[in-house]
Amino acid sequence: MKKIAIVSSLPIWEASIPYARPSDAGHYAVWLSSVCKALENQKNYEIHWLILDKSVKNEKTIETRGQFFHLLPKARLTIGLCTGYIYDTNVILRTLRKISPDLVHTWGTENSYSIATSHYKGNKLLSIQGLLKAYSERARIARFERLQALYEPYTIRSYKHITTESPWATERVKEISPTASPYHLEYAVEENFFSSTRVISDTPVCLYGGSNTPVKNISTLIEAFACPELAHIKLILAGVRADAYPYAPENVKFLGHVNRQEMIHQMSQAWCLVHPSLADTGPTIAKEARVMGLPVMMTTECGSVQHIEEGKSGFIVAPYDIDAMRHSILKMTESKETAIAMGKHGQAECRQKLGESTMIQRLLEIYASIIS
């Protein structure tokens, strides 16, 4: 049987016995959990996950859920950045030599994983998550991310096989590596969003969900909601604290950190989702909203716009165009009936494209293509 080694920031609880995700789990790559779940039932490959975690003191291998999980110690980020991730690279390559996989699949350029596996001499595949170089060109990002972005062009050019989840991400990859021909792979939405029912509030509510970083462009969104025409519409900012925007108008509500279940609850009540980002490879929350049946406003600098039909299931606006944002929001919240009808438009197609079964079928096709 062929072996696949997946090197990623899969949450360590996926390897627990019994499996148990913390109820207050913070931000993590939720699509990796979907990949892990979907791979439980496939019979074509022997699957090995390599997970670096600071809580791991000694290397440990756990066999569960029909897969192997290699839990590996991780160096501190500051040490890793200053040393070119030598420690993490040695740990990962040593484990890969033991496994001897037919293909190494690495997720993300935002950490040491892609740098480590770029040194692997066999078949390798890189899946893009975020693109720090593009983010840094469009907004101020954290110091660690700026330093990590310096590695990104070299890393991307080290891989012949790359997957992206959106046309926007493909364009950014080709700017770095013009000869690249990335595979398109939609990262799946968690099953909970498929089974949740939408019961929208009596009064119009727009929802934003995500981090509070300059690249998310929240200040422009708040400026739009300060317009008198939107005074009757509430904007809920999940993941954002009130002290970051003391000048926000009264119709803006800050929730701070929310867990996944609370996020689903907020989505079920919202009339629409708004995502004003200056750069985003494929915002997961926009996909979750479309699966649940919400219309979405996004910018031209966002991936996932392929899941929106302009004027029918949402709107695509320029990042700083406040007039266009205001117009879009007024259209999506014209009435309850409008919000529901726009959310349903194209929903079935989104649910088909963004399901776990579709993702894993495409991923297995890519694996077979590379190995053969």
Query: What do the pLDDT scores average to?
Result: 94
Instruction: Please summarize the sheet with the most strands.
Output: 8 strands, mixed
How many strand elements? 14
β-sheet strand percentage? 15-25%
Distance between the termini: 14 Å
Within the largest sheet, what's the order of strands?
Answer: 3-4-2-1-5-6-7-8
The whole-angstrom Rg is: 21 Å
User: Helical residue percent?
Assistant: 25-40%
Protein structure class: alpha/beta
Q: From N to C, what is the helix and strand string?
A: EHEEEHHEHEHHEHEHEHEEHEHEEHHHH
Keywords:
8-stranded mixed β-sheet, 6-stranded parallel β-sheet, 372 residues, single chain, alpha/beta, globular
Walk me through the topology:
Blueprint: E1 2-7, H1 30-38, E2 45-53, E3 60-64, E4 67-73, H2 77-83, H3 86-99, E5 103-107, H4 113-117, E6 124-127, H5 132-138, H6 143-157, E7 161-164, H7 167-176, E8 183-184, H8 191-195, E9 205-209, H9 218-225, E10 234-238, E11 252-256, H10 260-269, E12 272-275, H11 284-292, E13 296-299, E14 314-317, H12 322-332, H13 336-344, H14 347-353, H15 356-371
Parallel strand pairs: 1-2, 1-5, 2-4, 5-6, 6-7, 7-8, 9-10, 9-12, 10-11, 12-13, 13-14
Antiparallel strand pairs: 3-4
